[in-house]
User: What shape does this take?
Amino acid sequence: MSVNFENEPMMDIYIFETNQMLDQLEQAIISSEKQGGFSAENISEIFRFMHTIKGSSAMMLFNTIETVAHTVEDVFYFIREQKPEQLDYSGISDLGLECVDFIKIEVEKITNKNEPDGDAETLIETLKIFLDGMKAKFDGAEIKDKPETTKAKQYYIPQEKNPAISLSACYHALVFFQDDCMMENIRAYTLVLGLMDMVEEIYFSPADIADNPETAIEIREMGFEVYMKSDVGYEMIKAYFDKCIFADRLSVREVDEKALKAFQKELKVAKPAMPQASLIDLSAEKNSKFASNEVTRKPNGSNGNGANGQAMISVNVDKLDKLMNLVGELVISESMVTQSPDVENIESENFHKASLELHKITEELQDMVMAIRMVSLSNTFMKMNRIVRDMCKKLNKEIVMEFIGEQTEVDKNIIEHISDPLMHVIRNSIDHGIEDEDERLAKGKDKVGHIILEAKNMGSDVLIIVKDDGQGLSKEKIIEKAKKNGILEKSEEELTDREIYKLILLPGFSTNEAITEYSGRGVGMDVVVKNLESIGGVVLVESEPNRGTTITMKIPLTLAIVEGMNISVGRSRYTIPITTISESFRPQAGDCFRDPDNNEMVMIRGKCYPILRLHEHYKIKNGQTDLSKGILIMVEQDEKRICIFADELLGQQQVVVKSLPHYVTSTKKIIGLAGCTLLADGSISLIMDIGGLTGLRLQ
Amino acid sequence: MNNEAVNIFDEEIDQKGQYLTFLLEDEAYGIWIGYVTEIIGILPYMEVPELPDYIRGIINLRGRIIPIMDMRLRFCKNFVDYNERTCIIVTDIEADTVGLIVDSVSEVVSIADDNIIDKPMMSTGISNQFVKNIGKVGDEVKLLLDCEKVLMHNEFEKTLNEDQYGRKIE
Assistant: This one.
């Protein structure tokens, strides 16, 4: 059966929803494991996710995924209903995560338009064996009855009818919730939902608990009353109410049918329909943290998250991109109009006021559109939990990861490029940084290793910091490895600590002797650097022996708009990002000189900086050649400073970055050019890449 | 976008045989109409450093940044200052948009397949590369361009290429 992906409009939604559920499922399993047990809420949640995945996969005809989901569902149904005493929590979590992984891989295949042809045989076998194992241990105890309700649920766990109960009886229950448990109406609703399986008729008061929050107060004062008719038996009903969370006082008693009818008449409420969506309400609070800031590929579905009071909508990313481009063009057009030389000569004051207003509004529009694309980092950080858990298990270390500032937002493009580098860095920390338990205790450190994952805004950049309290980087080992690979440029003594640590970012570099499953191929840090460079970021490494290592990833907040200073060289125009400029000045002829290698330098306040003559470097004709007649602009990137020599400064402008045409970039990668932009008068200015230029003069 | 244009034309005129002819010095060249997006007069351009001489720089075409290539320099002829007759033929070739600077643009001609003949082996190897075949229009011949080769830059071609000042073009 090959799936025709072309005509499958549901495919996008399916992939999006399933991925989202898998992420949440993963978090649920991991956090349960951390808490040391599966609470009833967790189990229900996991069960629900698996159930939905099963359903949608079946609909899309992905049978393997459906079967896996189904089997997991069986396992958790058993746990939910029978509540076996001694659960192998670790084992269940492992199994659960294994299934999540399997489904993730299958979904990825689907996303890449390949066949989801994974073989789940072994996985399903393992699940079945596990389930049988649990049942065997549990044998003999009361097995819950699966009553014949009108609901079309399909559970394949064999049912044993409890012969003692065959007559329907009526019950009355009155529940008071704990004093400050809040949202009593939702809790009551959940209670009722859970009863649906077991009862034939049910009536409750207050009745409008699903949509009226005032009922919470009513329940707090007068309790929640339920009348029901069921054949599962008093014990069953009582047990169900007993395990109701947050119940403070309750009473369950058998009544006769007349009382039921009386209550029914009072309410005149029939068995209400239970929409599936309401089940999500409770968990919506938890999950809204993930869903709220994520703008993803869902064609215009309305995704109301009612319980939180925040109206949300999913938007296609393409539309956002187009919107951003349009706004960029608008900014350029607006400057072309308001700064055009003709306009400046207009005497009318009203006109100038109006154009100021226009400028303000355009700026605000721009800010707003940029803000829409911002997504919080919390989701990315959450994903790291899984890695920490898995690695800790495999390497037998105990590590706790702390998040700081995870609500910091970055552009959506950047998020995609950060996840992998972050994973690499954390893997390194766990594998190389944090020592074994014994070693740590011997050093007098805490037995449990700590990794702090922090995100914060600094100027126009976002910093993501991974700090561990492990053994730090060994300078000797690094230098040794560098020597062996022949990449040591300066002699040992000349290298500052910082430069030594930076060596680990070079390709092929690893001080690990052997290759482990996670690292040692010397590939990790180089990939991190490349990934970050593609979004304009840099990596900084700091370390203290035996105290730990800190890796900082500095990423520009947004790629598209840059505050720039326009300069001219001959007939050419260049733009330098303002954040890199330290100062600009006209040098005295006496301050400049050449060193024996004929490199030009300038002396400022006792320090020497190399001069980069743009007209020479880029072979621009008609540029100013006399240093004392032009202007020197001191720029800094990665702690390297150089002075750029240009003809004159033209002025500051907020520019929209456009990339150089593909034909140009494919012809040659020009060092020092990051892109181009349109100036107010319609002419083009080339945007400089300071990092590339400072990298040229390696002094 | 070009493909849609082809479909419309196909019904009336066979676009396959349509060529836009232009002049470089006194030589007539033709470029298949399917590549051509528009023709504009020469615009002010910004030089981009470190590129081959024949890539003059980039222009702002209604908000789009497009590189322009001087066809004289490309074919190793001497450079001539631009005047009001100089045109830029904006072309879309294999997902790259490039403007071709030419002395002047003539007309669009139809050249039937049997009027297209293979180019003879010529002794000068350079501009030979860029000409795909030769089209006969009345008494005249037009050199029909191989656009992909025009845009391609390979090392071999580069070492052959020296401009009239004797400098090697990178």
Notes: Chain B has one domain: 2-160.
